[in-house]
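Why do we care about 3D structure at all? Because function follows from shape, and shape follows, mostly, from sequence. That is the central idea of this module. The next example makes it concrete: a single protein chain, its amino acid sequence, and then its structure expressed as tokens.
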Amino acid sequence: MAKKKATGGLDEGARIRVKEGVASPDFPDVLFSGWTGSVVEVSGKPPAQKFIVEWDAPTISAMPPDYLSRCEAQMLYHAMACLGVEDLELA
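And the structure:
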């Protein structure tokens, strides 16, 4: 199966960095600014595409403990997030 193409080079497998000021979709008080990872899935069509991002090891090890415990309490997987194209840039 071919990889899905996205806008701005943000295809599946692309290394990304979250832009300044972008908050967690689940916890608006937690900023994802500067977090890095890889796009593992692209869904939807422009301009409403969503990107499933898997955080890299340095990002996971630097996550605030409060964020981890809140994810666990709400049964959310902390190592991934779903963000929009406006939230991401190539790393």
